[in-house]
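Same chain as my last thread, 89 residues:
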Amino acid sequence: MTLDATKNRIMNHMNKDHSDSLADYLAHYCGVNHSIISNASMTDLSDEGMTITYDGADKSYFVPFTPPLVNLEGLRPRVIAMANEAKQK
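reply #2:
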């Protein structure tokens, strides 16, 4: 599978099945008020981080991976850990 195909598969999965986690990332890592987030979606993904927006947003938000990923294979455990952290606060 090519990098673009992998990236698109991951983004489609996150947007379809994990919009709630994307909203949690926006609230926790970007300071967006959770009550205004509707239909959060990932619009880009790299080893540096993910770009997320939501309905009615006037911009996109970059959520960095700290440290950056070596490759997208390490994404799943990282976003799970980030989701758990975002839910705790």
